[in-house]
Amino acid sequence: MLIDDFVKMHFESQGQIKRGGNKKVRLFDDYVLLAGGFKEDEIKKIILITNELKKRGIAIVPTLEYKIVYPPNDLGYARGYILQPRAKGTEIYSSGMSDEEHEKRLHDIANMNIEKIDKFISDWLDIENAGLMIDPSKTTNFFYSEDGISFIDLNLNGGKTEPLKTYFVYICGILTDYLSNFSTEKEIEYTIQIIKNVAVCFMKSGLEIKDINDIISSKQFMHSLNKAQVYSVIEFLTKEKLRSNVTSSAASPKIFDKKNEKR
């Protein structure tokens, strides 16, 4: 098995090591070896789901192989290793970024092709509808490259999905680095543009301008945006809806399936 070679290199201290949640991560040129505890039945399901999603062109890092070293404990967790390919690009945001790198990343995402943002959103929903869970609390679970944004660190979600409004909050947060730590006027400008772009994509799938206004006027957003900036977003969306005739029954394909519609 391929994983045996990487476990051997791990013990030879080859590759770069870092921490990832409750797992130790060993980085190689094209692969990642994760050491930690996991349930074997869950890993088998994750392998099946991620391989199928990858075949469909979803931007995820699949689990390739696993190896159990110590048998399961009383809670069912075995200790061992998981092998994955390395994600393309770099973490979308990280604490190690300089101010200049952070501003450039915001700039790049603000100027992303709208189709790439659409794909990021549709990939997210495809992943969760397939039974996997994405952790939106850490930007390091998302990798950015010129091709778009990919997902790492996926777990089973037990069939739970969220309504449109929740995903809008998640995705705005990830793409803007949680609307925080702005140090320049340019960063605020880029953040507003990102919110506009994400909102346009969600409007195509039925999220109403009123819902978007309620969200970006909330305390969660208002700690970063003032009333004038919120108004500028809503004004833009209203004009965009009139210009593009964007409605919840638009002819363009919906990126969300029915289980993600407003409940």
List keywords for this structure.
alpha+beta, Phosphorylase Kinase, domain 1, five-stranded antiparallel beta sheet, three-stranded antiparallel beta sheet, 10 strands
List the helices and strands and how they pair.
Elements lengths: L1 H10 L4 E5 L2 E5 L3 E8 L1 H16 L9 E6 L7 E8 L4 E2 L7 H12 L3 H16 L2 E2 L8 E4 L2 E4 L3 E2 L7 H12 L9 H20 L4 H8 L2 H4 L4 H18 L19
Antiparallel strand pairs: 1-2, 2-3, 3-5, 4-5, 6-8, 7-10, 8-9
Structure in a nutshell:
Helix content is 44%, strand content 17%. It has 263 residues and is α+β, with helices and mostly antiparallel strands.
Fold and architecture overview:
The protein is of the alpha+beta class and 263 residues long. It folds into two domains: 2-85, Phosphorylase Kinase, domain 1 (2-Layer Sandwich), CATH 3.30.200; 90-260, no CATH class. Helices cover 44% and strands 17% of the residues. The protein contains nine helices and ten strands. The strands form three sheets. The protein has a five-stranded antiparallel beta sheet with strand order 1-2-3-5-4. It has a three-stranded antiparallel beta sheet with strand order 6-8-9. It has a two-stranded antiparallel ribbon with strand order 7-10. A hairpin with a 3-residue loop joins strand 2 (23-27) and strand 3. Helix 3 (99-110) packs parallel to helix 6 (185-204), helix 5 runs antiparallel to helix 6 (185-204) and helix 7 (209-216) packs antiparallel against helix 9 (227-244). The longest helix has 20 residues, at 185-204. It starts with a helix and ends in a 19-residue tail after the last helix.
